[in-house]
Write a structure and sequence with these properties.
Layout lengths: L1 E5 L3 H14 L7 H7 L8 E6 L2 E14 L5 E12 L8 H15 L4 E5 L12 E2 L2 E8 L14 E4 L2 H16 L10 H8 L14 E7 L2 E10 L3 E2 L2 E2 L1 E10 L2 H13 L3 E10 L4 H4 L9 E4 L1 E5 L2 H7 L8 E6 L8 E6 L2 E4 L6 E4 H8 L5 H6 L3 E3 L4 H9 L12
Parallel strand pairs: 4-5, 13-14, 17-20
Antiparallel strand pairs: 1-2, 2-3, 3-4, 5-16, 6-16, 7-14, 7-15, 8-9, 9-10, 10-13, 11-12, 17-18, 18-19, 20-21
The chain binds coenzyme A.
Length: about 400
């Protein structure tokens, strides 16, 4: 009989996270790793699945505050390090852990949960919907020109860890405040996750480089990148690997990207996880040559439909009644009237009927009801309801989470 309970010790944490590190072909996490991890993670939020006294699986959640449309930062379970050892797969262990985790998130008052999925087939059954798309680019040196008339402004300079820890967070926060899907980073997060550069994180690339962009001495953006340092038969073939480029103004976007694209001794600049509305695509003279590859981004689950819908803002006041199906979290099932920015249980007949996972897809603004309808994922019960719902849910900024957690 398999039991699931919150970890009570660092040893249990290391074993529970060991289930996922198994698949990354890495050793069981070290004590040093656990110490760093616990600067941003509450021990009891790591669930362990135990068979005959041995930990065989784990699932964790960060306590996030995540931006929703309109700018509110709502309590959110940031689901992470989920794994079940191959000796115990397909016996329902993941389902048991998801049960405990979502019940716990609800008790904590977290109205949403988000995650990045290793495989898109896993989380829909637990009510998670694909909520944002990301694209990766690889811009070759010879194809990296901007369209004519685009000028860089301000200055760029390298900074050390301590200065970055002061200058970068306000830039991140300015972007976060207007971007659904981004979560608050504590000072410990910056120190132990964003800026830290232990050699084991470098892979085959060099040290993490930290660059700030300033106009009249005021930081407007920053970039973090590594150089690959590759050398070919005919000369340098290094690749710029940008892990995070954050720009609070268009000037910072232009200047940081021009800088990254032009670094000498490189044959290309790459980055991943860009939001679908990222301006790079409009800046490049030859966007196709950036070899954009589109993929899934954040997955979102409404843990408490009423609280989640009431937490975001809307583009219209029109009333909409949604019939929500939610097998895994039945407390959400039923009809919800959304009106004047607040959602409440309703006895009125529904305008639209959909699964909670599909509501998760539209919640942050990454997809529309019309798009759901084209994929046969929402039922229009009253003619015109899809258009009405889209005019109410419309947002201006694509959801984006700038890092995989
Ligand atoms: C994905 C993983 C956690 C699943 O754990 P598990 O204990 O085998 O899952 P369960 O037995 O609880 O499966 C529950 C359901 O999900 C399905 N499922 C589980 N993993 C799946 C996958 N990778 N793809 C498609 N379906 C999957 C099962 O078939 C089952 O379906 P059913 O309810 O219709 O019978 C485990 O296989 C694993 O650790 N994989 C590698 C690491 C990984 O991908 N972790 C997730 C990180 S985001």
């Amino acid at each position: 009989m398999i039991e699931v309970h919150p970890c009570k010790s660092v040893e249990e944490l290391r074993d529970a996270v060991g289930a996922i590190t198994h698949y990354f072909a890495r050793d069981r996490p070290t004590e040093e790793w656990a110490e760093r991890w616990l600067k941003n993670f509450e021990l009891e939020r790591m669930l362990a699945a135990i068979d005959d006294g041995k930990i065989v699986g784990g699932a964790g959640a960060f306590s996030f505050k995540t931006t929703v449309p309109g700018g509110a930062a709502v309590p959110c379970a940031g689901v992470t390090v989920v794994g079940v050892l191959p000796t115990h797969r397909r016996r329902g262990i993941l389902s048991s852990m998801m049960r405990v985790q979502l019940d716990d998130a609800r008790e904590r008052g977290e109205s949403i949960a988000t995650l990045f999925a290793s495989e898109e087939t896993i989380y829909g059954r637990y009510g998670y919907g694909l909520a944002s798309l990301n694209f990766n680019v690889e811009v070759p040196k010879g194809m990296n020109a901007f369209r004519p008339g685009i000028e860089t402004v301000g200055r760029l300079r390298f900074v050390e860890f301590d200065e970055a820890a002061k200058l970068f967070p306000p830039v991140y926060d300015a972007v976060r405040a207007v971007t659904p899907g981004m979560f608050e980073r504590s000072a410990a997060w910056w120190e132990n996750r964003t800026l830290t550069d232990p050699p084991e994180f470098r892979g085959s690339s060099g040290p993490k480089q930290l660059v700030v962009h300033e106009v009249d001495g005021v930081p407007q953006g920053y970039a973090m990148y590594r150089l690959g340092g590759e050398w070919g038969d005919f000369g340098p073939e290094s690749v710029v690997r940008a892990s995070e480029v954050m720009a609070a103004t268009p000037q910072a976007t232009v200047s940081l990207w021009r800088f990254l694209l032009d670094i000498d001794w490189t044959k290309a600049a790459t980055t991943f996880l860009l939001p679908v509305d990222h301006p790079l695509f409009l800046l490049l003279a030859r966007p196709n040559q950036a070899r954009p590859r589109l993929g899934d981004g954040l997955w979102t689950r409404l843990v408490d439909v009423g609280a989640a819908l009431s937490a975001r803002t809307y583009a219209g006041e029109d009333g909409i009644v949604l019939e929500v199906r939610d097998e895994f979290c039945p407390w959400n099932e039923g009809r919800w009237r959304l009106e004047g920015g607040a959602a409440a249980r309703s006895e009125d007949s529904a305008d639209l009927s959909l699964d909670v996972a599909d509501l998760g897809s539209v919640y942050l603004g990454g997809f529309t009801f019309r798009e759901l309808s084209r994929a046969d994922r929402v039922e229009e019960l009253v003619q015109g309801a899809i258009d009405r719902a889209d005019s109410v849910f419309r947002t201006d900024v694509a959801p984006w989470c700038a890092e995989i957690f």
